Structures are given as structure tokens and as C-alpha cells.
């Protein structure tokens, strides 16, 4: 037993946790920003019903649940719900669908379970946590990227001289380098008028997917393989990250207000 413990400690020492990191979602900070912003746009009725289902846990707190369960094989069916792979020349409507499911089918299933009168409160809470996360993922451009490079995961770059990839840069590298808590980022979101918020909340989930897919095209052009991305890259692109987090939060609130 001592030998096993020693071996684990040795591995952790030789290979820091960044070496094992995967980059297939907004990082925890990003998802919590989305949850926090959504909470500020909930109706009183929706907020009361959600608090009851989540046992008073906040949207920000449960927003990372869908990533946390990835380590449990019982939940493998949900893995493909985090993304959509679409060629540039297609829309979601015309693209080939993943038979195992994708962001759109996952969101639709979550909504169906939450709406169903036959669903238990535990099931509703489980799928609500997934829904909160998936609406966030929908607005990360590389979650609606290309199949051949796994949404930018295979586009290797450096981030301030450290190995990374284009997907991870957009998931978490820029957010963590900015060094603000999720509360601070949410509190410093752009001030929008009621009409601007209403406009952002228009459309369907598929409309939002196609919109994010268009943005993904720009992200793919923003860096070259093996490029060392630094302060200039954040200067040019972090405003888009912040905007996408805010839009995701505003739209998540719309989905939840409609549900509850």
C-alpha cells in the first residue's frame, strides 16, 4: 500500500495537474459567471422554484456539475451533449447529426424531463444542473467547431510559453490569466438596456448554435498552430469571451424563466 501511495505522489510531482487537464468546456470560472449572470435575470417565480429543486444551491455552484460527473462511467451517455461538430459551410439544420446526441438534443432532453409531470424532483434537479451547464457550453465558440480537430483541441499552441491548445485558450486560459473571480467578472459585465437584453433572448437554441458557429469561424482564424499566444491575443479576444459569457447567462435566464 505504501508503495502505491508513493508512486501516486511521485507521478503528481513529476507531472503537475496541468498535464492531465482536459479542455472540453468553459472552465469552472466561466461556467460560474454564466450561472451568476443568469441568476440576476431570473423572475421571482423561477428563482423560487429553482431554489427549491436545487435545495438552495446557486446556479453558479451547480454550473460545473455536468463536467464533474464525467469521471463516473455511469454518465458516459452525456459526454457528447457538451458539443456539436459542424463543417463551416453548414448550419445545424443541414449538418450531419451525431447519433449519440449533441448540445441541441441534450438541451431538448433536459427541458423535456424538467417539464414532465411524471419526473421526480431528483430527476428534475439532475437535468436542471445539466441544462445550466449546456447553455453555457453552447456559447463557447469551440464547442461548435470542427470534427477533424475536435473543436480546436488538436490545434496546439502555447499560452505565455506553456503548452496549450486553441480550445483550452478559449475555455479557461484567457479567463484565468485575467485573474478575476466569477463574482467579479459577473459584476463587471457590460451594462445593457432592457431592449438589448430582450433582443439577445430572441431566437431558438438552434439559432444560438448557428450564431456561435459563425463566431467559431473567426476564432479559427485568430491563431496558427504552434503560435505563442500572449497579451496581444487577450487584448484582441477577451472582450469576446466576456460577451459570450454574458449572453449565455442572459439566455439561460430566458430558458429557465420559460420553464418555471
Automatic annotation (TrEMBL):
Keywords: Disulfide bond, Endonuclease, Glycoprotein, Hydrolase, Metal-binding, Nuclease. InterPro entries: PLipase_C/P1_nuclease_dom_sf, S1/P1nuclease. It holds the Pfam family S1-P1_nuclease. One of its GO terms (molecular function) is endonuclease activity. One of its GO terms (biological process) is DNA catabolic process. Transmembrane segments: none annotated. The keyword Transcription does not apply. This is S1/P1 Nuclease. It comes from Neotamlana sedimentorum. The lineage of its organism: Bacteria, Pseudomonadati, Bacteroidota, Flavobacteriia, Flavobacteriales.
Amino acid at each position: 500500500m505504501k508503495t502505491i501511495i508513493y508512486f501516486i505522489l511521485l507521478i503528481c510531482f513529476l507531472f503537475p495537474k496541468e498535464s492531465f487537464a482536459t479542455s472540453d468546456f468553459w472552465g469552472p470560472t466561466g461556467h460560474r459567471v454564466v450561472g451568476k449572470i443568469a441568476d440576476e435575470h431570473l423572475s421571482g417565480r423561477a428563482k423560487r422554484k429553482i431554489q427549491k429543486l436545487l435545495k438552495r444551491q446557486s446556479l453558479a455552484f451547480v454550473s460545473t456539475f455536468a463536467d464533474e460527473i464525467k469521471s463516473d462511467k455511469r454518465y458516459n451517455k452525456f459526454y457528447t451533449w457538451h458539443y456539436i461538430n459542424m463543417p463551416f459551410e453548414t448550419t445545424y439544420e443541414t449538418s450531419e447529426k451525431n447519433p449519440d446526441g449533441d448540445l441541441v438534443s441534450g438541451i431538448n432532453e433536459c427541458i423535456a424531463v424538467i417539464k414532465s409531470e411524471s419526473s421526480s424532483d431528483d430527476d428534475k434537479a439532475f437535468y436542471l444542473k445539466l441544462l445550466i451547464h449546456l447553455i453555457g457550453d453552447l456559447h463557447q465558440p469551440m464547442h461548435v467547431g470542427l470534427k477533424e480537430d475536435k473543436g480546436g483541441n488538436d490545434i496546439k499552441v502555447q499560452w505565455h510559453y506553456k503548452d496549450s491548445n486553441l480550445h483550452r485558450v478559449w475555455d479557461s486560459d484567457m479567463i484565468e490569466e485575467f485573474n478575476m473571480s466569477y463574482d467579479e467578472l459577473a459584476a463587471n459585465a457590460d451594462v445593457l438596456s432592457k431592449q438589448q437584453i430582450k433582443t439577445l433572448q430572441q431566437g431558438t437554441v438552434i439559432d444560438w448554435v448557428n450564431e456561435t458557429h459563425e463566431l467559431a469561424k473567426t476564432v479559427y482564424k485568430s491563431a496558427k498552430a504552434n503560435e505563442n499566444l500572449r497579451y496581444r491575443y487577450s487584448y484582441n479576444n477577451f472582450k469576446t469571451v466576456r460577451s459570450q459569457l454574458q449572453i449565455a447567462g442572459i439566455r439561460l435566464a430566458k430558458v429557465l424563466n420559460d420553464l418555471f
